[in-house]
Structures are given as C-alpha cells and as structure tokens.
Amino acid sequence: MGRSLYLDCISGISGDMTLAALMDLGADLSYIVDHLKQLPVDVFEIEVHSVVKKGIAAKKLKIDFQPNSPRPVLFRMQDHDHVHRRAADILLMIEESELPPRVKQRSSAIFQAIAAAEGKIHGMDPQEVHFHEVGAMDSIIDTIGVCLALEDLGIDQLYASPVPTGSGKMRMAHGLYPIPAPATAELLRGIPLAVLEVKGELTTPTGAGILKALVTEFKPIGGFTIQQIGYGAGEKDFDHPNVLRALLL
Question: How far apart are CA 45 and CA 93, in angstroms?
Fold first, then answer.
C-alpha cells in the first residue's frame, strides 16, 4: 500500500503553498532543485523560510530568478514586458526532459488541465494558450516542483478537503477580474467549494490545477490516521492563518 496525502485547503491552495507544505513534510529540496535545474528554464534559486502565520509555524518559498542568464531558455516570446509561454511548449519541454516518469505524467496533467480551462475561457485551442499569470516561470517551477516533492515523498494517492476561493476583484493581464478568476472557477467545476468570507484570491489557477489533475477524492477531514503534518504559507495575511495543511496518512 503506497503513501497517501490529504491536502487540507483551509485557506485555499496555490502552487507555492503546496510545494512549501511538502517541504515542511520533509521533501528534499536538493532532489527537487537538481531535477529542475536540468530543465531549459531561467536560472533560479529556491529558498525555504520558516514563518509564522497567525500563530502557526509554516514553511514559505522564495524563488529568485536571474532572467538574463546565458542559459538555453525555451519558448521565449516578448510581449511588452511579459515573457509568454505556450502550453504546447511547456508540455513538450516536460515530455523531452529527464524527469522521472510519474513526475512527467503528473506535471503534464496539471498543465493540460490549466490550458484546457484557459482555452475555454478565452475561446482558443488549449495548445495555443499563452500563460501570463499562470505561466510565468515561477508557476513552471511550482508545478513541476510539487510533482517532484510528491515523488520524493513516495505519494501514490491524493485526497483533499473542499476548497475556499476567496471573493472580490483582482487586477490581471486582461483587466479587472472577479475572484475566483475565470480559469480557476473553470478548473474547480465538480470540486466541492468551502465557505470562507475573505476578500482576496485564496485559490490560484495553479492550485486549482493541482487539485483537478491529481486529487482522487474530495472529502471532509477524517476516516484516516495522520502520520505527519506539514504547513505551507501563502503570501498574504488574513484574519485566519493563510496556510495549506498537508497531512501524510
């Protein structure tokens, strides 16, 4: 029987919160970074900090890029100040990489889910979707990093709680959008949502993509034995602890 993970989305979910929570559970940073550095991505460093969110000690990620590094960088397309990347190029990069088979499969599934949602919202072929918000380089690092962390921890099955989205409006590449962002809402179809009255984005497209592509079952906490707990911190501060709780079962 393989290991199972339960994502307790008490404050929503994002890629960096998930990766930080898995690091807190003991995923090996050097294993993750060594694999990521073999990809044709911008030169980067990942730092893991300990923070306290409303009284809960959690891990928080900081990813630093040196975008003008002389590395072979894939699929660059300048548009004003944004570097855009096509979904098809990201999927090809994963396919051609030396990543472990299950990491390839899981990270491709996440990007395909996000591209399908973005494509539906913008009325275009998912392969042609350009990642703006989602697709900055850090989301590539977050997504593949999460799949590497799951591999390092030997996770076979993922479960999750109902997920809160947050509410209000936020500024995006196309203008002022509702929260959850349209692509996030599309990804969350069929996934139970939790009530949490908060102004601001709690669940990002990357977080929703992880849930959509990897989680077998959504259910309230319980019916299992917890072995270990990791906490991953989000960027913002709210009246509640802005953390994702990852339970090793």
Answer: 20
Q: Six-digit token pair at 64?
A: 């630093």
pTM of the model: 0.91
Alpha-carbon span 60 to 62, nearest angstrom: 7
Measured in degrees and rounded to the nearest 5, phi and psi for residue 146 equal -60, -45
Q: What is the pLDDT of residues 178-197, one digit of tens each?
A: 999 999 999 999 999 999 99
Taking only the tens place, the pLDDT of each residue in 203-229 is 999 999 999 999 999 999 999 999 999
Per-residue tokens: 170: 């936020």
Between the CA atoms of 234, 235, 239 and 244, what dihedral angle is there, to the nearest 10 degrees? Answer: 0
Amino acid at 99: L
Residues 6+ apart with CB under 8 A from 124: none
